[in-house]
Amino acid sequence: xxxxxxxxxxxxxxxxxxxxxxxxxxxxxxxxxxxxxxxxxxxxxxxxxxxxxxxxxxxxxxxxxxxxxxxxxxxxxxxxxxxxxxxxxxxxxxxxxxxxxxxxxxxxxxxxxxxxxxxxxxxxxxxxxxxxxxxxxxxxxxxxxxxxxxxxxxxxxxxxxxxxxxxxxxxxxxxxxxxxxxxxxxxxxxxxxxxxx
Length: 197
Fold this sequence. Notes:
By secondary structure, the chain is an alpha+beta fold. It has a domain at about 85-195: Head domain of nucleotide exchange factor GrpE (Nucleotide Exchange Factor Grpe, Chain A, domain 2), CATH 2.30.22. It has 4 helices and 6 strands; from the N terminus they run ααααββββββ.
């Protein structure tokens, strides 16, 4: 008998716990349903406004103006690049002719020492001047570098340093080994100089 009472109590307890579990599940389901309904309401509240024709026209106008401005900038940039290209179109040719000019200058310096070769000197000088004048007409110019000029790393290329013969030549150009040239405003060969320490 005692066992039967215990079994009944156990069954009652199980039923009660099952009922509580069921109630908890029902509460959870109700809460989820409320949340889903709230989310649906929120989604329903978001209203997408369609732009008016004036707004569409204004947006297209802005787009057109930006495109027009970009095209104008492109035209300016390409015309500037074209002008630069014309100015320096002969740079490669000029650079390849500079050693010939250097050879003429060396020949003239060597011939000046020989008094018997006066006619030869005149002929070489005439050819040199003709070549150099033609190159000058195409925009080539010599970068003048003299002894005593202040060394400027943007214009000169230092190949060596030697002790300065006097105090006033320290940090200045002592000798120009190779002349520099520029085409228009662009330096195509820097003068190679010796500077004093």
